[in-house]
Amino acid sequence: MSAKGLGDLERLSLLAVLRLGSEAYAVSVRRELLERAGRKASRGAVFVTLDRLERKGYLRSQMGEPTPERGGKAKRMFKVEPKGVAALAASLQEIRDMTRGLDVDGLPRWATA
Amino acid sequence: MGHRVSRGPAQGLVWVLVRAGGFSRDGLEGVLGDLEEEGLEPGTWRHLRALAGVALHVHGEPYRDREARGWLLLAAAGGLLLWSAVVAASFPPMPDLEPLWDPVSRMALRFWSASHLTAALAAGLFVGHLPGAPQAAEAGRWHACSMVIAVAAWQGQGVATALMAAAALLVAAWIGARARVDRARGRAAGPA
Q: How far apart are the C-alpha atoms of A16 and B130, rounded to whole Å?
């Protein structure tokens, strides 16, 4: 397990990119975070988090085709790398290890079982 | 792929800040396209504010975690130490001795007595070339340079020398960073 875990937004962003598949770019990731997790992240935070994840080798980006609605600019599409999946798995396992067996009112059963 | 749009001065400055923070050209094109897709037209206040938000986050990266902060401290402290060492090792101009020396030695003597400029070049190359903290290094480099300039460049020899030293440091840092990037690319490409 890596000594340097994923940050909260990093974890959620990786999950959002996995969920979005071939449609993952900053706008859709930000929308996914809001709609699915209720997380209102600023544009700057999402852009920089995705960029940081790519520098860490957890994501890979590719420029798509430019489109008129984007002022003729290409979309930067993201895909999770195997290293990113491993980091995500480790991060989720950490949470699982910490929640398993907890007997606290208010925590969901699936988290503490 | 994509095209450059004309930028007002404010947007141009923010664009430079984002690029200086290490955001790639492709990355920035993606950002600008995303903003337009969300209805934020270039040249509007909302567009500028959104882009400034990106610049703020980019320049917040060097302070984000312990590794990045440690690197920044090392870069700034190392730059300042090198600056002090070069200034301490220099000697004042010796105009009485110059006529006795050959042109090359005279030039070397003048260069070495312009200690703040020499110190700025040395500190800039050090900060620019220092490896590590990849996700925060670009913005961190410029922040470290700013710290060195703030502390060292304004000591001693007047505003003109301070400004020249600051400019020399920034140029040297850029050269050092480019040399590091080019060498890393060369290593990644492998032997011919």
A: 35
Per the structure, the count of domains in chain A is 1
Predicted local confidence at residue B4, as pLDDT = 46
- CATH number of the domain within which A51 lies: 1.10.10.10
In this structure, is residue A3 part of a structural domain?
no
Task: Give the ranges where B38-102 is alpha helix by DSSP (H).
Answer: 45-60, 66-89
Q: Is residue A112 a part of any domain in this protein?
A: no
Instruction: Choose the mutation target among A27, A47, A52, A69 for the interface with B, i.e. most B CBs under 10 Å.
Output: A47
Considering the domain boundaries, does residue A43 fall inside one?
Answer: yes
How far is B146 from B62, CA to CA, in rounded Å?
Answer: 13
In-domain check, residue A105: no
pLDDT at position A5 is 84
Residue A24's pLDDT band, with cuts at 50, 70 and 90, is: very high
How far is Cα B78 from Cα B148, in angstroms, rounded to an integer? 9
Mention every residue, 6+ apart, whose C-beta is less than 8 A from residue B63: B69, B72
CA distance B190 to B182: 13
Q: B33 and A44: CB-CB below 8 Å?
A: no
Full domain range(s) for residue A59: 8-94
Contact call for B31 and A26, based on CB within 8 A: yes
Is the pLDDT at B26 greater than 90? The verdict is no
Q: Tens of pLDDT along A54-80? A: 988 999 999 988 888 888 888 999 999
CB contact under 8 A, B36 and A73: yes
Confidence of residue A1 (pLDDT cuts 50, 70, 90): very low
Closest chain A residue to the Cα of B61, Cα to Cα: A48
